[in-house]
Amino acid sequence: MIEIIFGPDDLTRIRFARSPLEELVHSVPVLAGTRRPVVHRPWLEFATGRVRGLDLRVLLALAQGPRVVPDFLAPPPAAMTGEFRDELDAIAATPAATVRTALDELGAGDLLPAVLRPLYEDPERELPGLVDTMAAYWRAAVEPVWPRLRALNDADIAHRAGQLTTGGLAKVFDDLHPEARYEVDRLLIDKPLHSARRSSDGTGLLLVPCVFAWPRLLVLHNEPYQPTLTYSPRGIGRLWTDETSGETEQPLAELIGRSRAALLAHLDLPLSTSQLAAYLDLTSAAVSQHLSVLRRCSLVTSRRSGRWMLHQRTPLAGELLGAPARHAAAPKP
Description:
Layout: E1 2-5, E2 14-16, H1 20-32, H2 41-47, H3 57-63, H4 84-92, H5 96-106, H6 117-121, H7 123-142, H8 146-172, E3 180-183, E4 186-189, E5 196-199, E6 205-209, E7 218-220, E8 228-231, H9 250-256, H10 258-266, E9 271-272, H11 273-280, H12 284-296, E10 300-305, E11 308-313, H13 315-321
Parallel strand pairs: 1-5, 2-6, 6-8
Antiparallel strand pairs: 1-4, 3-4, 7-8, 9-11, 10-11
Helix pairs in contact: 1-7, 4-7, 9-10, 11-12
């Protein structure tokens, strides 16, 4: 059992955040086969070939450990809308003592995997290479689908924030995860293999939705980090589902062309031009041209969200595809 004890000030310091880094770290066991939920099979089919050729041995050893993920590999995001580059910089700046302490939890001495021993012996020398590997993995496997992940996480944060406003932490934890329950001044997390007690001491609690954490509840309770819970957002079952793919898009393909029909089928949730290009194996220029035509026909809408120009199909496009369009909120910057 893990206990997180709250003081009077902590209850006013509950915050939510999304983290590209959390998605990256928890996607690794899914890709490696340590955990392969059926719900992520479409992503697996997409990502497997794209990471071929990357040397992921150190990242795999860190992220798919049998018991814990080292704290320094996914530190709590400093802001609600975490930026991936900032999170990588935080890893690169991890003190050597912190790295070694975290690796000791994976296995001391000869129990530590051989591929991790250079990192243990000289963190300052090895961390830049780890960060470069994570950046390459991000570009290949996670960045192309990040708008989908971000949209789902943002929708969940909005829902949970509403619960917090109307019913406090008790309402939030009513349906967050079966392992967590709130009792007056503390949060209890049922983890039979772990025993820990942490007082928040005015630091509050951070709640981070993460698609690839599904179906687990992950707890960061060690000092000096803010107590953090990583949980699965609502709606994962529809994340990778393109109900309008395959046979349902064929009649439309005969009318407007296969590429444009496939593009519309992928726009159930907002996606950027580069993500669409990656999904459909087209150039960004070709995707932009298709989007321009579809916008003029009122089949696609586009809006800017931070650095991204996001596109989503309209209800009319949904009708043409044979399935109603879902009105997913555009991700916040």
